[in-house]
Design brief:
mainly alpha, 97 residues, single chain, rod-shaped
Amino acid sequence: MIDINSQLLALQVRLQQLIKNYHQLQKESVQLKKNLAKKESELATKDEEMQKLQHQLDALKLTKSVFDETEKALLEKRIDIYLKEIEKCLALLNSEV
């Protein structure tokens, strides 16, 4: 009889330990699910930011490729001419003062 009682007591202790472990694992599971949801949200936000940056990069590449080398050279020459004309105008204004 003592042997059965000790076996039942050992079984009860083991069962209580298993129940305790089960509850601990449930809490851990809930926490992990919360963390996963948070990380997924952060990932979605980063994904959106990356999409925006990719669009900006594509736009920059497009505007940069609009002008080929000869067009760039012509544009630079026209800007130089405009700058020289502005300098002449400033010189004329300074000489009148």
